[in-house]
Amino acid sequence: MMGLRTKRLALLAALSFNAALLAGCGSTTKLDETPVESRTPNPVGNSASASGGAAAGLSGSSSGAGAQSQVATVNLPPAGGAGAAGAGAAGKLGRLVYFDFDSFVVNDEFRSLIDGHAKLLAANRSKRMVVEGHTDERGGREYNLALGQKRAEAVVKSLTLLGATEAQVEAVSFGKERPANEGHDEAAWAQNRRAELKDR
Question: Would you say residue 176 lies in a domain?
Answer without folding.
Answer: yes
